Amino acid sequence: MPAGPGFMTFFRPKPGLQKAKSRLFFVFNGLKHYIIRGEQMFDQSVIDTENLIEGLNEYQKEVVNHQNGVVRVNATAGSGKTTSITKRIAMMRHNGVDPNSILLTTFTKQAAKEMSTRLSRLVSRHDLECLTIGTIHSTCYKILRDSMPQLQHPYSHIFAKNGNEIFLMNEEQRFFSEKILQTMTKDLKGRYDFNSAEEWGVLSNSQLASFMGVVANSKNNAMTHEQYASSIDKKNAFQRLSSKFYTLYEERKLAEGKVDMGDILMFTYEIFNDYPEILHKYQTKFKYIITDESQDQNHIQNKLVKMIAAPHNNICIVGDVSQAIFGFQGGKPEEFLSFIDEYPNATQLHLPINYRSKSHIVDVANKLIKHNTLRIEQDALAFKQTDDKCVSHHSFPNEQSQSQFVATKIHGLLKEGVEYKDIAVLYRTNAQSRSVEEIFMEQDIPYTLHSSYGFYDRKEIAEILAYLRLAKDRNDDVSFQRVINKPNRYLGKRFINALNEFKESNWDAINLATNLEKYEQNSAREFKRSVDSLARVIEEEGVAEGIGFILHKIGYQKTVNNLKNFDERMENINVLISISKKFNDVKKFLSYIDLLATKKKETKNSVQMMSIHKSKGLEYEYVFIIGMNEGLLPHNKALETEDLKMIEEERRLAYVAITRAINRLYLCSTSSYADQIMEESRFIKEAGF
Questions:
Q1: 688 or 201, greater pLDDT
Q2: Which of 129, 158, 463, 652 is least surrounded by Cβ atoms within 10 Å, i.e. has the fewest?
């Protein structure tokens, strides 16, 4: 009897049982039931329908039992969204839906992994292998790898390659983009037309991230560089330069055989439009589509989902518009709200019951989010009804006293039997972690920082500290090599190798190396003069003035401006300046930082520290939200633009932070931060305090 995909692998008998196993056509193993239909094998759900809906509330049962047509599921925080989605898929399998025809898209790879883990308990192994579960980027990448090599497309030969070397990401993408700006600068120097002076001013004062953002946003909205060029205001110098940047970016990317993440969606969209037969292939394959965290999808992601879903239109989008916090990445929560309006027979279902948080926490979250205009008029309902007023607001003079309060409360919770791992400290920006980190290190409180680096290890902080270390000790080769090209002095590996040939320090070797190019000698000597001047400023005016010298006289500010998230990096630097004002002696300042680094403790049982964005989807028994101030939460970026959409996204961030808490929530604000007077966040009052 011929077997379907994976049959022989799944039914391979264990050693010693071959004779007994080889005769089986039907296998009953608990609730597993495999049925052979013709030449194709379908695996039934391993759990029967009664078990699938057992323990579910009526709202969840509606979602699980829904199968055909367009449906939007409005799911509040802690409402069992993942359970409902996975059991819905298991129910579809029980009803005979081919697992190969089901596509489940998630917002992150971690969410896809969690969905797969949950489904492994509900459906057979064979079913799980047949399902398509992943981010929409991973799904589209598979489509491109399958389709591109056979098409007349400029990138066909690139997608024929194996491996990840084709992807342009992170630092490589930044360096790639920097070169394009350098090319644009050179071209502009040779121009003397009417627009050149205005463009020169814009190019000199614009951040690299602004130009990269134009490319990303255009692709999020399915706009090619040709379409962007035709849409700009020709009188706007920044838009003219952005169009030039986008065009050069695409030309150079193709020439070097690279693709970025935006291309994955753009190319899929283009192919679906240009090759209807390819679109039809995937429409035929994926007859059922479920999209998780749909409120955070961008425009092109929404378009792709709709294209694949047609003409069956068995599509289920799941999300919570009150938790839409990725507008800066192109998320379109308004499209989540308007989605069902495009389909006349669409259904709307709700998951309103919050099983996570005590009722006071849910009440506070409801009060806050009601101030948003972009929302579904539906309060979350608390399953855990209690009279416990478990949310409190605390105000402090500065971030140091705020951090001391957090540490004191944690010591008290430990005496009550609470474990470190059940406690989280949340904040709007990563710079805010610094004062808490220092208190935790001083008091031996173990913590895990859910960020790539601790405060003093962050790129911009580490590089400024390297300048300070070199000003203190010219023989510090590690610091020398870290900052010799910050800002870019075009002194690369060849230059460093020439210096390393000498026993002397890199600093002294500059005067000994005779094989350096003229420009290398000049740049190196200018660098030495800058560091000598820095040392004098520190000695005469203090460490804080020294950091200002690094930024503005040495030119490190330009380096920061070209980094991703430059505004957040500048916030980190401003915090460092605030700390350094306590020190006139650079040696004592650096010793203080080194001492903190040696005290850091991180274990599995540790306090969890992270930005609110990182906390999405997580939950903790006890939560501290620090820095609830105007300028932090809501952030200055939203306040400066006075953009209602941005303010509402900041409010949704606060809502997400609040709904991470299970038992107890502490809202904390300060009267000052980084030596700046601060007002209490409007969200405190809106939440009822």
A1: 688
A2: 129
Antiparallel, parallel or unpaired: β 32-37 and 40-43: antiparallel
Q: Is the pLDDT of residue 667 over 80?
A: yes
Residues 6+ positions from 391 with CB-CB distance below 8 Å: 360, 361, 364, 658, 661, 664, 665, 666, 667, 687
What pLDDT, on the 0 to 100 scale, is given for residue 599?
Answer: 65
Rounded to whole angstroms, how far apart are CA atoms 172 and 650? 31
Pairing between β-strand 661-670 and β-strand 102-106 as defined by DSSP bridges: unpaired
Q: What is the pLDDT of residue 46?
A: 63
| Predicted confidence (pLDDT) per residue in 608-623, tens digit | 999 999 999 999 999 9
Which residues have a Cβ under 8 Å from the Cβ of 262 and sit 6 or more positions away? 215, 216, 219, 220
Both tokens of 259, joined, read: 């693709």
Residues linked to residue 349 through DSSP beta bridges, in sequence order? 73
Strand partners, 609: 425, 449
pLDDT-based confidence at residue 466 (cuts at 50, 70, 90): very high
Q: Give the neighbor-by-neighbor strand order of the sheet with 32-37.
A: 28-29, 32-37, 40-43
Partners of 347 in beta bridges: 71
pTM for this predicted structure = 0.84
Distance of CA 642 to the CA centre of its chain: 24
pLDDT tens profile 521-540:
888 899 999 999 999 999 99
pLDDT value of position 567: 81
Q: What is the pLDDT, as a whole number, of residue 306?
A: 95
**Beta-strand relationship, 32-37 and 28-29:** antiparallel
Name the 3-class secondary structure at 425.
strand
Q: Distance from CA of residue 658 to its chain's centroid? A: 19
Backbone region of residue 78 per phi and psi (left: phi > 0; alpha: psi in -120 to 50; beta: other values): left
- d(CA 344, CA 70) in angstroms, rounded, equals 9
Q: Which helix (H) or strand (E) holds 657?
A: helix 644-658
At residue 39 the predicted structure's pLDDT band, cuts being 50, 70 and 90, is very low
Using CA atoms, how far residue 46 sits from 32, 65, 245, in Å, is 5, 17, 54
277-296 b/e with 16+ CB inside 10 Å = b?
Answer: ebbeebbeebbbbbbbbbbb
- Note the pLDDT of residue 2: 36
C-alpha span between 351 and 374 (Å, rounded) = 18
Give the whole-angstrom CA distance, residue 136 versus residue 265. Answer: 8
Q: What is the CA radius of gyration of the chain?
A: 29
**Segment 478-506, tens digit of pLDDT:** 999 999 988 888 888 888 888 888 888 99
| Torsions phi, psi for 464 (to 5 deg) | -65, -40
Burial 74-113 (b: 16+ CB within 10 A, else e): bbbbbbbbbbbbbbbbbbbbbeebebbbbbbbbbeeebbe
Backbone dihedral angles phi then psi of residue 276, each to the nearest 5 degrees: -55, -30
Q: What is the pLDDT of residue 24?
A: 36
Q: Which two tokens stand for residue 94?
A: 């029980």
